[in-house]
Design a protein that fits this description.
Blueprint: H1 11-23, H2 38-41, E1 46-49, E2 67-70
Antiparallel strand pairs: 1-2
Main location: membrane
InterPro entries: Tetraspanin/Peripherin, Tetraspanin_EC2_sf
Keywords: Membrane, Transmembrane, Transmembrane helix
Amino acid sequence: MLVNYTGQNRTTEQSWDYVQSTMKCCGWMDPSNWLENVWIKNSSGILYPCSCRNETLPGTDMNETGLCEHLSADVPVYKTVC
């Protein structure tokens, strides 16, 4: 599921976004699970799932779904696993 996540609002993606944002978690074993995502892996920028965004940390985008871009490799995501 995470590998092909596009943020295009498909039902399975909405469910995963909901789980991560409400439970304040990221990934099923580790936030690095997202590094296998096709879009993140092939991006020239530093992307992370917006639903993993830990709003208590400084960062850029505050979208609830999709992929967000960050300027440094230290992305502001939850470290707790889902």
